Amino acid sequence: MTLPADKVSDGATNKNAASAASATITVDTTNPTCSISGNPSSWQNTDVTLTLSMTDTNVDSNGYKWDSGSYGSTKTKTVSTNGLHT
Asked: How far is CA 74 from CA 12, 25, 64, in A?
């Protein structure tokens, strides 16, 4: 991709006075594959540990989020309450 010199500007509308700017952009068109293991098929009376697995190497290491928590790099979650956990 090449941008003409007069089209490159910053937030203060200062324009590039030099030459045109160019950049190489790579678009990831492969969908990531995600799975969660550790989900029991029957009732439990103890804590359950879930583990998230991703197969896309381009996933941000801080791109995981459990329930309503913050995004981070934690791939496991220990569940001790009934309900839907995402």
From this structure: 39, 29, 7
The residue assigned the tokens 């996933």 is: 59
Separation of alpha carbons 14 and 8, rounded Å:
8
Is-contact 40 13, C-beta < 8 A? Answer: no
Q: What is the pLDDT of residue 20?
A: 58
Q: How many CB atoms sit inside 10 A of residue 48's CB?
A: 13
pTM: 0.56
Question: Higher confidence at residue 61 or residue 30?
Answer: 30
Q: Looking at residue 69, what is its pLDDT? A: 83
Q: Where are the alpha helices (DSSP H) in the chain?
A: none
Distance (Å, rounded) from C-alpha 18 to C-alpha 8?
A: 10
